[in-house]
């Protein structure tokens, strides 16, 4: 089976995010009432796995492999079976 | 009301994604059977708006402001009311 995986990798709360701060300044300059803007990475991929549970487990391992545990958190946002 | 917005900005299909290609190589090297790895940005923010519909509309405008319409697509992934 093939699965579509969406993985988010973001800075932990409390870790200074200069890119988020810059975007926040831009948006506030455009009069959007935003705060706490945080910028992270989203990874989309197709993964071959025998079952959804194994796809989800592999997605967790991939998130762990690609994120920095000191500064970042990852979230397996979605695991969808492809036709 | 305050809303938590999650916005994804990704390269359009067909636009070469060297970062995704690099991550794909790393994951395949680790024996993960992945393909079509794409790397994009995720933005999380808090937004003040009078209603969920207006928060969603503002999130769309923000996505339009922050993405490059030639190369990127944006998705308003989530709009959640904060307590």
Automatic annotation (TrEMBL), chains A, B:
Species of provenance: Meiothermus ruber (strain ATCC 35948 / DSM 1279 / VKM B-1258 / 21)
The UniProt record lists the keyword Transmembrane helix: no
Chemical reaction(s) catalysed: N(2)-formyl-N(1)-(5-phospho-beta-D-ribosyl)glycinamide + L-glutamine + ATP + H2O = 2-formamido-N(1)-(5-O-phospho-beta-D-ribosyl)acetamidine + L-glutamate + ADP + phosphate + H(+)
NCBIfam families assigned to the protein according to its UniProt record, in alphabetical order: phosphoribosylformylglycinamidine synthase subunit PurS
Gene Ontology biological-process entries: 'de novo' IMP biosynthetic process
Phylogenetic classification of the source organism: Bacteria, Thermotogati, Deinococcota, Deinococci, Thermales
UniProt keywords, alphabetically: ATP-binding, Cytoplasm, Ligase, Nucleotide-binding, Purine biosynthesis
Superkingdom, natural source: Bacteria
Family matches, as PANTHER family: PHOSPHORIBOSYLFORMYLGLYCINAMIDINE SYNTHASE SUBUNIT PURS
Compartmental location: Cytoplasm
Pathway noted in the entry: Purine metabolism; IMP biosynthesis via de novo pathway; 5-amino-1-(5-phospho-D-ribosyl)imidazole from N(2)-formyl-N(1)-(5-phospho-D-ribosyl)glycinamide: step 1/2
GO cellular component: cytoplasm
EC number(s) from the headed UniProt entry: 6.3.5.3
Pfam families registered for this protein in UniProt: PurS
UniProt record similarity statement: Belongs to the PurS family.
Role noted for this protein: Part of the phosphoribosylformylglycinamidine synthase complex involved in the purines biosynthetic pathway. Catalyzes the ATP-dependent conversion of formylglycinamide ribonucleotide (FGAR) and glutamine to yield formylglycinamidine ribonucleotide (FGAM) and glutamate. The FGAM synthase complex is composed of three subunits. PurQ produces an ammonia molecule by converting glutamine to glutamate. PurL transfers the ammonia molecule to FGAR to form FGAM in an ATP-dependent manner.
Chief location of this protein within or outside the cell: cytoplasm
One Gene Ontology molecular-function label: phosphoribosylformylglycinamidine synthase activity
Subunit structure: Part of the FGAM synthase complex composed of 1 PurL, 1 PurQ and 2 PurS subunits.
UniProt key word Magnesium: no
Protein's name according to its UniProt entry: Phosphoribosylformylglycinamidine synthase subunit PurS
